[in-house]
Structure formats: C-alpha cells, structure tokens
Amino acid sequence: KQELQPLPLSAAPAEAVHVDCSNMRHVFTHPKFLHSNSTSHKWAFGAISELSDNAADAGATRFDVNVRALAGTQQMLTFTDDGSGMSPDQVHKCLSFGHCDKVEVDNYMPIGHYGNGFKSGTMRLGKSAFVLTKNGSVMTAALLSQTFLFAVGATEVLVPICSWQQTAPHTPIQVTASDFTAILKYSPFSKLEQIMSEFDTVAQTGTKIFVYELKMEGNEHEFNFSVPEDIQLRELATASKRKIMEITSADFLAQYVNPLERYSLRAYFAVLYLQPKMMIFVRGRKVRAISFALELFRPIHLTYTQQGEQAVKLLFGFNKRNKYECGSFIYHRGRLIQMYLRLGIQNSASSRGLAVISVINCNYLKPTHNKQDFVLDPPYRLLLQNVALKLTQCWNYWFNSQQGVLGLFFRNLSYEGQKGTTPFWHR
Questions:
Q1: What number is the average pLDDT over the span 54-69?
Q2: What's the CA gap between 329 and 315, in Å, rounded?
Q3: Strand 327-332 to strand 356-361: parallel, antiparallel, or no bridges (unpaired)?
Q4: Are 333 and 355 a contacting pair, CB within 8 Å?
Q5: Is 309 exposed, middle or buried (0-12, 13-18, 19+ CB in 10 A)?
Q6: Contact 131, 142 (CB under 8 A)
C-alpha cells in the first residue's frame, strides 16, 4: 500500500489528493443509537414540531395530527401532509442520518438542514414509525422500528422499504419478500389491503406517518388524549393543577402555572410559525395562528442591528392572558426556537417587566440541532443583552407616559373571569 505523508496542520493541499477508499471500513449505526439520538428532545412537542417542519419544507398546505386506536388499549399518533412526497431513494435518505438536500425555493428558506429531525422526532415519541408517501408516480412504505431491530437481533439499523406504482393496479416496483414480511409483521397493518387503504387517505402527493408504541410514564402515556380536539402533556398539565391546589394566594397563583403553550399542542402550534404557510389541524380542528401584533396590548415596534448583519425587527407588548406569562419568543426563519425566555428586569425581584412579551425573528443565529435552543455564541449573547436593554426602555416609556391606562390594564387582568366582566381592552 502507498504510504501517505501527513500534511502540516497549517498547510492546505494545493490540489485534491486521490485516496483509494475501497478497502476502508464503514462506520455502522447500532439500533441503540435510535434511542440515544432521540434523547436530544427533552420535550415531546419539540419532537412533533420536527415533523411539521418537514411538512412545511415539502411545500405542504395542510398538516394534520390525529390519534388512532391500535391493538387493545394502545394508541398511535398520525401525521399527514399534502407536500411533495418522497421517492424510494428520498425515503431511504430520510431514514438515514445526516442526509439533507433541501434548498431555498421561491425565497423560502427551509427550516431543517441537519438531516436528523425525522429520526430524533419519531423515536422520541415512540419505539416505531411507519411511513407512507406518494410523489405523484410512486407509492412507498417504509418502517423504522426499534422493536423490529431488536427482535431480529440487528447490529445496525435496517429499514424495510417497499414501493408500488401509484396508478392502479399498483404494480410492485421494489417489493422484496424480506421487506414486505417485516412491514406486515411489525407495522400497524398486517395486510396489503390495509396499507393500500391507508394510501388512499393521502393526497396525490404527500406523506402519512404513524408513530406507535408510544412512550409511557408508568402505566400511562405521557400524552393526555382525554381533552377533546387537543393533545396535552400529562405531567406538565398535572403539575399546573397541583400548584393551583397548593397555593392559596391569588396574586402568586399564576406564576406557578405552566403556560398553555408548554403542555397544549394546539396552543403550541398557534405560536410555532410567525407567518404560517400551511393550515394545521389537531384532531380534526384547525389551529388558529396567533398574530402577536394584534394580540399584544400597547405594542411597540423597534429594530436592532448587529454589525455586518441584517436589521432584526423587535415587538414588545403586554400579554392579555396572564401577567406572569412573560418573556421573549425568539424565532429563526419564522420558526419558534425559544419561548418565555425572561431577560433583564424580568429576572429581578421587582414587578418590572411583568406581562411583557417580546417577539424576535433573527435569521443569523444558529439553532441547536433539536431546534429548542440557540448556540451560545457572541451574536446570540449580544442580541439578548440588547433585547434586555430595549425591554427596560419600553417599560420606562409605558409607565412614564401611559401609567393610568396600564394601571387599569393590570387591574382588569387580575380580576378577569372572577366577576364575569369583559376586560376594558375588549369593550
């Protein structure tokens, strides 16, 4: 074998060096990594939003989240969109790690770019995911299942994939006996007729994902499916109710209650995208997207510019729902990354900054791969410092020039619902 001399660390090769890689070892991905990778999502809704992001990037105009019964008392989540769908090769890449060929189309910058969201998202929600997708000419079914992989003793991730012509009589394109047998045994559907019937529920192009063997907390799902037209996180919702029972002081009650967006999927979807390009339905009912400019009381619009970067629009205003639900909603490319992040005076022991919501859409920041935080680099830290400073300036302006109106606002906010009166800002 030809011996290669190492290049100096400070030197870059003047031209590409040909290396024969045919005998090099491949790195395999063990099935256990599916679970390890999913733990990047501490919050289940962060995992669900990965799937809605994929639908938005595929040009979908509609995204549906539903709950369906499985065997016995088991339930599964379904996610359906009418996006561009995928070819068999695209499905294979979707189920692999690090493959992402999304590009800007018609001034739309794709949300996902790490090539990991589908795997981390679905495996955070359940042990298995079954995918049906149509791209206009081909129908493809694929299985990503930890249960299947451990049952067959796999030492690397295997993904059974079958495809058929989309037009009747749905001639098989690539349907091997091993792939088809695995899909029928380990997917939610044990007959080909059932799979074809599910394909009929997908638009001419689009994707439908079934996530099952959902994560459990003891003997219960982490999700509470008993609330009509919503999916809620059982632990966070229960924690809020427990705090309500423990606290007797009405003035301090609300600060211990989790904001609705943290445990209600419907409420979270309402703020997930600044300018939604697709309709979102949760259990058959459309989500009404929140427009902060219309919802906040006494809004103030400002701009912030970092050297060498585009100007960032800032919006400050008062939350009409709960004065303790305050903080910053920070978006990247119009997609929510952080919410209720308290800055500056909102972290003090005083009441300054109460009820104030700030909304920022900053495209030059770098989200972490789970899209629930930002990389703690200098541009991010500088942005937070400036938002905190402008928050103080807005607070001083409001209470120096509009003290009477805000006093009435806070009195109405405290007593709204107790006497059945309509707040003055709704009259």
A1: 94
A2: 10
A3: parallel
A4: no
A5: middle
A6: yes
Q: What is the pLDDT of residue 244?
A: 46
The predicted structure's pLDDT at residue 41: 87
Tell me the backbone φ, ψ of residue 151, rounded to 5 degrees. -65, -35
User: Are 63 and 188 spatial neighbours (Cβ–Cβ below 8 Å)?
Assistant: no
DSSP H or E run through 165: strand 161-165
Residue with tokens 């349907």: 175
- The number of residues in the chain equals 427
Amino acid type, 237: A
What b-and-e string marks burial along 259-287, b requiring 16 or more CB atoms within 10 Å of the CB?
A: bbbbbbbbbbbbbbbbebebebbbbeeeb
Which residues in 342-412 belong to E strands, given as ranges?
A: 356-361
The 10s digit of each residue's pLDDT in 152-167 is 999 999 999 999 999 9
Given its phi and psi angles, is residue 306 left (phi above 0), alpha (psi -120 to 50 degrees) or beta?
beta
* Contact in structure between 317 and 390 (CB atoms under 8 Å): no
Q: What are phi and psi of 185, to 5 degrees?
A: -85, -35
Look at residues 391, 263, 255, 415 and name the one whose alpha carbon lies nearest to residue 324.
Answer: 255
* DSSP code at position 35: H
d(CA 237, CA 223): 10
Which residues touch 418 (CB under 8 Å, ≥6 apart)?
A: none
When comparing pLDDT for 312 and 349, which is higher? 312
pLDDT at 252 over 50: no
Angle at 77 between CA 73 and CA 80, to 5 degrees: 145
Strand order in the sheet with 285-286: 172-174, 161-165, 138-145, 126-135, 205-214, 75-81, 62-69, 279-282, 285-286
The model's confidence at residue 137, banded by pLDDT at 50, 70 and 90, is very high
CA distance 84 to 203: 10
Strand-pair partners of 206 = 134
Q: Give yes or no for a contact between 201 and 208, defined as CB atoms under 8 angstroms apart.
A: yes
Query: What is the distance between the alpha carbons of residues 110 and 102, in angstroms, rounded to a whole number?
Result: 6
Q: How confident is the model at residue 250 (pLDDT cuts 50, 70, 90)?
A: very low
Question: What is the enclosing helix (H) or strand (E) of 210?
Answer: strand 205-214
Q: Residue 238 — very low, low, confident or very high, per pLDDT cuts 50/70/90?
A: low
Angle at 372 between CA 371 and CA 375, to 5 degrees: 75
